[in-house]
Amino acid sequence: xxxxxxxxxxxxxxxxxxxxxxxxxxxxxxxxxxxxxxxxxxxxxxxxxxxxxxxxxxxxxxxxxxxxxxxxxxxxxxxxxxxxxxxxxxxxxxxxxxxxxxxxxxxxxxxxxxxxxxxxxxxxxxxxxxxxxxxxxxxxxxxxxxxxxxxxxxxxxxxxxxxxxxxxxxxxxxxxxxxxxxxxxxxxxxxxxxxxxxxxxxxxxxxxxxxxxxxxxxxxxxxxxxxxxxxxxxxxxxxxxxxxxxxxxxxxxxxxxxxxxxxxxxxxxxxxxxxxxxxxxxxxxxxxxxxxxxxxxxxxxxxxxxxxxxxxxxxxxxxxxxxxxxxxxxxxxxxxxxxxxxxxxxxxxxxxxxxxxxxxxxxxxxxxxxxxxxxxxxxxxxxxxxxxxxxxxxxxxxxxxxxxxxxxxxxxxxxxxxxxxxxxxxxxxxxxxxxxxxxxxxxxxxxxxxxxxxxxxxxxxxxxxxxxxxxxxxxxx
Length: 477
Known about the structure:
The structure is a single chain. The protein is an alpha/beta fold. It folds into three domains: 2-41 and 97-149 and 275-356, FAD/NAD(P)-binding domain, CATH 3.50.50.60; 151-271, FAD/NAD(P)-binding domain (3-Layer(bba) Sandwich); 369-476, FAD/NAD-linked reductase, C-terminal dimerisation domain (Enolase-like, domain 1, 2-Layer Sandwich). It is built from 16 helices and 21 strands. It has helices at 16-27, 42-47, 49-65, 81-91, 98-106, 158-161, 166-171, 186-197, 217-229, 320-338, 356-359, 378-383, 399-404, 437-445, 450-453, 466-476, and strands at 2-12, 32-36, 110-113, 115-118, 123-127, 133-144, 148-150, 178-182, 201-205, 233-235, 240-244, 252-256, 261-264, 266-269, 273-275, 307-309, 362-365, 370-375, 388-394, 411-417, 422-430. Strands 1, 2, 3, 4, 5, 6 and 16 form a seven-stranded mixed beta sheet that branches. Strands 17-18-21-20-19 form a five-stranded antiparallel beta sheet, with helices on both faces. Strands 10-9-8-14 form a four-stranded parallel beta sheet. Helix 1 links the parallel strand 1 (2-12) and strand 2. Helix 3 (49-65) packs across helix 8. The longest helix has 19 residues, at 320-338.
């Protein structure tokens, strides 16, 4: 039995991005259907942002407390790992989505559970787990918000090795005795930080020269130094050529390209993401299944007047908060086009342009120390042709940092556009710096002149006083 239904907007995927698209078009008075094959709330809520930070928070809090006189003796004992894992389970609602479903229904969106596929122009077919079939027609737009999945390399022995991806790393119920982490990006370093603190012996294997390659080089250097001090092994310029787990049980042997071998109980591959577009019907509209979907600044797919791709799937920025930002932009654009607004605000920083994806992306890596950045690195700014100056400052020299932790180690950098005297990028590394990065994001997105930033006085004694020190260093160079 096939039921045909019509909505103004059909959203494929009920993660944070799809939820936000639905919320914005509903707020504009449009009807919306949302299709989800797994849990409403998506990767972020159950296998990424939320569980990983629930695991990392006690690790970082204990580390900070150990650097404060009068506290360090009180936190000398190991973490209560069962309590940490139980809190993580509570934070992800034990992998049940009842609360998120209630929210979606509360905004007036219609949820369809099952596998959704494009079915030609403005149509989506949905097959439910019970075998029911619906064909949803969108009057105005279909938004693909299906996200991305972890990529596991096609190596000899990989199938029998049963490797972890980010999903297993954030949802595991037991601490492995030995864990090999392949990859030095955000997932790799965050999970290495967490599981090392829980008692695993962690080895990080990186094909390149260092950790966090998309940030300023000193970020990866400081994080690697801290991981080694915590007892982890960090090996660079090395690749995995084979993994062996006999019969799919017992320890795994990791064979390296240099002939070396490492024995472990689990292996985590944190080596990249691929779009979840392989089975969503792209072939029915003349596109290649499994491809990233190129879009304009309003997140409309190139060459289409009805198809939008929002979040990871468009490959602009693979971060939840940027996907939600894109969703707000896309929702506004869909509503404006539905209302036949003659001219959308697509100029830089306009209401219908995701300009921040190129100019002011913030990110926090919740390691110990934290690494936080917004905008461009020095190398990216130079490659883009800007005439720039990098200004560095030792965060340990800031009064508030010394109060935050004895022996505070960290570093700050701002990248200044010398022609316009505005900031293009800022990076902080050190304990507690994640809460500093929004000020940098505002300065970059607002294109606040250096002369005006002089009048944004940081409170004393806080770590944010580093802003004054950076500006003084820029003035005195």
